[in-house]
Task: structure prediction
Amino acid sequence: MSKIQQQAKLRSDITRMESDIIMRALVYDRYAVDDDFASILQVRDIPEPIPDSNEVVFQVKAAALNYDDIWGMRGKPLAIPLPHISGTDAAGIVTAVGNDVRNIQVGDRVVSHGNMSCRVCRACTSGREYDCKKRKIWGFETGPLWGGYCELAHLPEVNMVKIPDGISYDDAAAASMTLLTSWHMLIGRARIQPGQLVLIMGGSSGVGNYGIQIAKLFGCIVIATASGEKLDMLKNIGADYAVNHRKDDWDAKVREIAKGITKPWGGVRGVDVIFEHIGGSHWNKELALLKYGGTIVTTGATTGYNAKTDLRQIFFKGINILGSTQGTRAELEQGLYWMSRGRIKSIIDSVYPLERAAEAHTKMLNGKGLFGKILIKP
Result:
């Protein structure tokens, strides 16, 4: 950031703090020790935001939890700005716009696209804004006091997407990052095709829920995994087969299913595409399940990053390993379009007020009984 840009930002921050109108926000000003979120999270009164010339202010009707909330409160892997307001996914109604805002008006229903990039570099202008070197995730890397867990939030116009008719604030907030991530993984990166056999790992999670529905939208056969008590729920949202990944032989069950599907057609045994965000001990089992020339696309590693890889699975079988993170604004709009047509639905596990945010985040971290997204409402 140049000196002129730094001075402009400082003036903007000072202007915001001069607002004498107060709103409620979920704030912390130190990191949590041993994931004791209740010890740091507080609902405080802070000044309402005043929009910069290119910004939109909106009343937050619903916001959704993400794992970057946990990373933020831990201060790992990034030491995020303090004092901090988390919240990358927020939906609401526009209350004010800056002088240079052209396509959004007061009263519009909007949802955040939390990938904040420069929009002018080579990566951005080639449709890969998620690779921008200046990229920041709103509500995670931004601040101080700049996220979605508050009564009024502000974002540049380019980071706001209008919510199509037929989609509620709750559904839009749940979809903001998670639907976008799943869409980019399967469509933008893996480029799934009708008739392919797709394995969705962790199907009970937010990204997993959407992954199942997107794969079915594109005419794929879906095997999804979760813990035993959630298997029927996976089938209820479209999975053709459901496997308990808590069992040691879960991969053998997937292999048996895949063999039964491909054998009548004389196909090579194995899975075409694996949707991966678990990592850890499952990694090599996943690679072994892929057919020759198959693809695994990964966006996370909730059970551990330091996974050992059996390279034989990669070079003997010609496997494609694809990384994926977030996605483009256009991809979010595509996903929301299909939501508005009733072909994709948000699965919402539970809704909490700001005052119970620590409980909500602990539930997300533990995952016990969790199916779908957790929302917070100011």
